[in-house]
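I'll show a sample.
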Amino acid sequence: MPESVTSSRSKTLADLLPIAAESYPNDGAFLFKNDDDVWETSTFSQVLAQVENLSLGLIDLGITPGDVVSILGNTRPEWTLFDFAALTAGATVVPIYQTNSAGECEYVLEHSGAQVVIVEDESQLAKVREVRGNLPKLEQVIMMVGEADDAISMAEVKDRGARGNSADFTARYQSVSPDDICKIVYTSGTTGPPKGCVISHGNYRSMLNMSQEAAILGGGETTFLFLPLAHVFALLIQYGVLDVGGRIAFWERDQLKIVPSLSEIKPENFPSVPRIFEKVHDTAIAQATADGGAKAAIFKWAIKVGKKVNEVKAKGKEPGFLLARKHKLADKLVFEKIRAIFGGNLKLALTGAAPIDPEIIRFFHAAGVPIYEAWGMTETSTGGTANLPGAMKVGTVGKALPGVELKISDDGELLAKGPNIFQGYFNNPEATAETVIDGWLHTGDIATIDDDGYVSITGRKKEIIITSGGKNITPVNIEALVKRHPLVSQCVVVGDRRPYLVALITLDQEALTRFAAEQGTLDESGSMTNSPIVRAELEKHIEEVNTHFARVEQVKRFQILPADLSQEGGELTPTMKIKRPVVASKYAEEIDELYAS
């Protein structure tokens, strides 16, 4: 296990930044691209000065302890500045995904009773304008970037703060206690309206202490952050990095620039979701296949050697002379190039929020890219378990973090207890009572815990399919194997109260273009989606997938949908989780056709 980091003197999220700035005043806290397209650093002292200014500005605008301030926008330095400004003023922060529709924003703002919403720019302001008439409690709208007649600019908030008193800032953040509420984070809502998870300063502070004891983040290290700060995973990273004196490198708010930025920044840490790793993996495999001949053979040989080395090391041994020589050659020919994609300096790439294919983890570990899978949920203030260097088992989500208790209920559900468990659902005592029983959080995940304490998530309780024959089936395991094919973007297995399982599949357009080129076919819009060649390729893949399951768990038929699932289409949550009821309703006709004959 890595060496743990000494916990800071912070007791809340409100005093976290002032204490960190006192400890690391001249160290870099932020790294971001400025208007001249150059990477610029802000020190802890500079960041704290901006936060104090904004905090006093919010206080001048009338923010009092316990008021609700919402933030709607992309992950960027201004988001973090306003977050700490609101927290140090004693407010409760309610994040909203930048991808949410105006109606979704209205729901969160109305349900939380937000008095202030801080929007990123004109496009986010437009959403609030559309629904502001339905939000009688909303008093102020503030813009991070730009100006508008019906909003307060960031510059004006700073001007108001400049007239304030530093003593008032200190008094306000020091008055915040661990029992005060720091966040109301709304869940993605896969089966119904989003629920607001109430998280106290003490909940998040305990989560940070657990992370530090597990040495998830190191002082002085750079962490590249592109995850949406409306998600608890990104929030934990944001607080955790600054708490130990690390530096947040903010993305350029462009998906296409994530990989190039990694090469420029060369971060030690890269928290991500599985999709990024899947894309890099699929691209590397596709490139090796396209190269063909000796290059393809060398690539496959190198990965095989890397996996063998990891197998030997997992047993507590070192590779022998011959294997070590092979590994050194494989590293020079292949692995260095793969590590270079992530900047070549990576110490920890934590993946969470969704399951990742174990084969992808094995692939990257063979290349020396340290990807580790973790598990948690909004209700656990982000975390619960993690694989870490020296304590890892591929195919699991790791062991319980220090201070977290886990057990499996009689029906296979994972239960959790600890100081990081949330306070309940905002204005929803019924849902809270159903979820937290005798201090144990009922996570909704079906899981197992092995003799070494490693947790394996096998499905979601609410997503269990019960066939007409009465068989209980977990669809996520089947879907994960179907998605291993590069052509597949999304897979939804259907079969509740039906005689057998069928699948709805969407295609990855980049992979489809490559596949079309390999087949000597033009990838014109729609021409390849229902191509007999594509269908035959997927039929062959699903036949192979079915060999891993009992007859009742096998996919008998599938339909390729004309377009990918998306948040805009209503089928995915902002964290890319499938809204199964929406998919079942939207594609009811296609599903019925699969069962027609």
About this structure: The CA atoms of residues 248 and 542 lie 42 Å apart. The mean pLDDT is 91.
